[in-house]
Specification:
The chain is an alpha/beta fold and 280 residues long. The protein has one domain. The strands form 3 sheets. Strands 1, 2, 3, 4, 5, 6 and 11 form a 7-stranded mixed β-sheet that branches. Helices cover 30% and strands 37% of the residues. Helix 1 packs antiparallel against helix 2, helix 2 crosses helix 6 and helix 4 packs across helix 6.
Length: 280
């Protein structure tokens, strides 16, 4: 699930929204959830950007003489002989993702700091450190199967291969309610825009056609912008659930689920592993 922020959220707005949905018949864990959201503007979050970014090209079979290259030569070749990684730079990643992640985090009620403001961060009583420990950009081929039933009689299919780009993020996070750093992980991917279909000619032969729009740098940058917003929301939700777990012996949240707070509507939702950080 995704949150959209147009401006920093005020405590008055949160109070009005949550007050309309939290009542006595609600599950017990909504009480601490409400408390966390209403008091989240007292939590200071230090965001530490990643020191370096990994670029991994899994299309090694396209690199001539790959197996005979040294480890250093392989790293150079994997980036240079790629569709997207050859165009990506650390600066693009920082502008499209890291800086945007920090921005979207400031649009919540959390107080967000970066290392140059460490002296201000330390003056807060409730502190959380979010270290973007590792960022990895992967490029590879993904298999897509197109299927159809011809004349309502038999199944035909074709396996096509499309370019794929994956963004992997490892986060080390402490919270005001747990001093031990927890390693969190999230990843998402995009591929070429692919459309494949089957047609039958006059002779009864089944023909396969496909139309692909290849991934480009602009789509990757837009993708990273969206992930920055999504992962900022994951961070808020992680701190929310951490607080609930620290205040209740049995939070009673369904297995494999976490609580998500939608700031626009002021409502809480259950989310599965596809919409949150995964603990490692």
């Amino acid at each position: 699930m995704k949150l959209l922020f147009s401006k920093p959220v005020t405590k008055f707005f949160l109070f009005c929204c949550i007050g309309m949905i939290v009542h006595s018949c609600m599950p017990a864990f909504l009480k601490p959830a409400k408390q966390f959201v209403l008091n989240s503007d007292s939590i200071a979050v230090m965001v530490i950007p990643a020191d370096n970014i990994l670029y991994t090209n899994i299309k090694t079979d396209l690199i001539e003489g790959y197996d005979s290259l040294s480890a250093e030569q392989k790293l150079v070749a994997m980036k240079e002989q790629s569709l997207l990684l050859s165009q990506l730079t650390d600066s693009i990643i920082y502008v499209s993702f890291v800086n945007k992640y920090i921005y979207y985090l400031t649009q919540t009620s959390l107080k967000v700091y970066t290392p140059e403001y460490d002296y201000l961060f330390e003056s807060n009583k409730k502190k959380s450190v979010v270290k973007l420990a590792q960022i990895e950009c992967e490029e590879y081929f993904d298999k897509v199967r197109d299927e159809d039933v011809i004349n309502d009689a038999y199944l035909v299919y074709n396996d096509a291969y499309v370019n794929a780009f994956a963004f992997n993020l490892w986060v080390e996070c402490t919270s005001p309610y747990n001093d031990t750093a927890t390693v969190l992980f999230a990843n998402n991917r995009i591929t070429d825009k692919h459309y494949g279909w089957f047609e039958q000619d006059w002779n009864g032969n089944v023909l396969y056609y496909e139309n692909n729009v290849e991934l480009d740098l602009q789509r990757v940058e837009n993708f990273l912008n969206k992930l920055a917003e999504r992962y900022a929301n994951y961070t808020f939700d992680y701190l929310l659930n951490n607080y609930i777990n620290s205040t209740m012996a049995t939070p009673e949240i369904p297995d494999s689920s976490s609580l998500h707070f939608d700031i626009q509507s002021g409502k809480f939702y259950y989310v599965d592993d596809n919409y949150k950080f995964i603990k490692l």
